Amino acid sequence: MRLVHLSLTNFRNFARLELDFPQPITLLQGGNAQGKTNLLEAIYYLATSRSPRATAEREVVNWLAFDEPLPFARLVADVVRDGSSLRLEITLVQRANQGGNTPRFSKQIRINGVKKRALDLVGCLPVVLFLPRDIRLVTGSPSGRRRYLNASLCQIDAAYCRSLAEYDRVLTQRNALLRELRERGGGGAQQLRFWDERLVTLGSRLTVRRAALAAALDEEARKQHRELSAGRERLRLRYESGITDRLPSLGQQLALDLEGIAESPSLDIEQVAALFQRGLDALRGREIAAGMSLLGPHRDDLGFLSEGRALRAYGSRGQQRTAALALKLAEVTVMSRELGEPPLLLLDDVMSELDEARRRALLALLSSAPQAIVTATDWEDFSPAFRGQARQLQVVEGRIGEVV
Ligand code: ATP
Ligand code: MG
Q: How many angstroms separate the CA atoms of 48 and 119, rounded?
């Protein structure tokens, strides 16, 4: 799988961009606020149908485009996969004005010219994005970690992605019903049972898949971390599920695992479903009082532990940064294994803040990757030998040129 060409129209500060990727490694240098992150954001957007940072589609549309009668933005990636070429396309068009001052945009997705859903796009161009703020995966809120697990899994498992979309719909409906039951009091048991069943079926699938990914990431991240910390510390990742953490025997198994005695247990879907339902039965009154669903993968988390202690609470900044890097390196390995080929690596200005050992780990990864796009503010982040192998580009105010 290779990204061979990118074409942008009115995306962020790129009014127009046509860019080829003829070499495995592309280095993009630029000062602050020139468009480095914007370029990687565009590729990530085409890969996942989502921006890693924008909260509304309109944010990515070039400001100048708003002066045009029909503001729009277009992103196109030409990808070669298994010998055949694939054209991925996202167009953002302004919706007819529905009152209010903020223009809203709708997203149209095409693959080889044919209209598709976001679900179909995700996975066509598998990517792993490294950002300086990856440390937030360790320090930030559980919702960020859930988003991370979902984004990774959607790229490697289309069935997961479909279940996730359906689960979100069921959750919304169930929450609406719980609120209604709270307002009107009594009754509704029949209806609730219907939504419980859907929630349990889909939620168990998500839980089992996420726990398996967490176990795979744990194994790889542990190795990476050992290298990065010169064997001084032990990192463990653990999927923390409100459903399975209720099962005492499994809890014990996980505790054993943390001691490094047993391998990570794989969860049995029937067992998870039974526990999930039992949990919902026990929480019924509280869920109605709260008017929302209190149990399920939408409340779960991925725990980072060093020597058995939560890194989020007890880790130093350096320890947290190392854990985040180990996680991302592990993600690349796990994704490569699951996909049968390595993903495209996108590294946004992450070299400058790493020490020598961590830089070496990242450079080793880059050298073995079939394709990587790396941004930096300083060329000095890379050795002349490394730069020599790469295509060197420079970005100035949304214009990209070759460095000769
Ligand atoms: P840094 O080194 O500081 O991270 P960068 O090169 O990564 O800089 P970008 O985040 O890519 O910078 O942003 C480049 C410029 O794009 C910024 O000046 C930003 O204000 C501008 N920008 C962001 N959104 C839009 C938009 N919708 N339209 C036009 N310009 C935008
Ligand atoms: Mg940037």
A: 9
